[in-house]
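Hello Y.,

Per our agreement to keep a running log of every chain we model this quarter, I'm adding this entry. I've kept the format consistent with earlier entries: sequence first, then predicted structure.
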Amino acid sequence: MKLFAKKKKIQVHKHITAESRQVITENPARGFYHVYPFYLDDEKDKDVVAAGFYPNETLALIEICLSDYVRKPVDDEAIKRINDIFEAAEKKDMDIILRVCYDLEGMAATKEPANIDTITGHMDELAPLFNAHDKRILVIQGVFVGNWGEMHGSRYSTDASIVRLYRHLRNVLSANITIGFRRPALRRLCEGEDIALFNDAIMASESDLGTYAEGTRAVELDYQNDEVGCCLNGGEALYPGGSVSADVVIDTLDKMHTGYLNSAYDARVLELWKRMDAPSMTGRLTKSLPRDIGPSYRQSLFETVSAFLGYRLLVSGFEKSSDEISIIITNIGFGNLVQDAVLALAVGEGTHEVFIRKGTFYSNRMREFRFRGNEFAEGTHKARLSLRRAWDSHPILFANEGANADGLDIGEIVIG
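Predicted structure for the entry above:
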């Protein structure tokens, strides 16, 4: 006689709190950053070394200027210096946005190597070090060339050179590290690749100072909305030539899937945002999101932007579905979850986990996660949901009121 396990009955008594107004600065791989330029020279680097990394931020944009190496390989001493920089950031629990260049003064044409093979050689020499830190280095901005490393103003900013440099860097670089391009038009040269975008002139003009061809802004924003949602994108917001409303700011950052912004430049923009009223966020969110859950009202545009940079995960559903427990989480942020994560549902003494692959939790999308009721012990149990980054178990806080590093209480489950 074949015996079948009896299905357990499940009852769910949910208690899901509304979205908090809190800006979750503790969450990794999103938020504001400062820039830390290094020339790999004691005298040139002494001020930035003395100042250290900025507190209360989880991101650092580290610039490595190879101006002293345009005619020679990157030697062991330089590699050790870069490694020391990375380790100093890691000790502060900071993730890294990396930019490598030969010029930080807007004079790339006169400062870069005379031969492109020198640049690819430097890529080969540095890649093993970068790959050794591939859990912390989220994105490399550019392909080593251009004024300030921004892929323009260089003899190597031709389409053919950009593609060659990108292909070479991608080939030697860990798959865990994303590469970012300065303009959407450059990204389209390598269609089909998961290439991020960085924009250091966000809303500075109609073309973002040449980021887009004249008259194509709307088309390019739609392109970003459709194509770069899986990546970590960001940059600098510059003081605009004309008036930009709060709604336009939110719409722009949302379509760009903005995950990070410079917190020091342009300070005039950030101060302006602090004086501007917060817009309603309701219209941009999925209509399936219960109105009693969110979004919460905020005082200023700055507060809103700060909260919605990158991912912002709101537990929005907790239901019984047949013999399973259904959890719904909505990403109400501008960007994606760009590192692998583990979702855990604790019911009584039992905990069951679901792996979430990076780049799959898109902005303004809901995802459902199911747990089998038979996996939990009978009885009445409190239910607690938590999320952590996969590689180091760093807590990822939900956006609901009452959430903390240990997770979020979502109600009770009766199993019997």
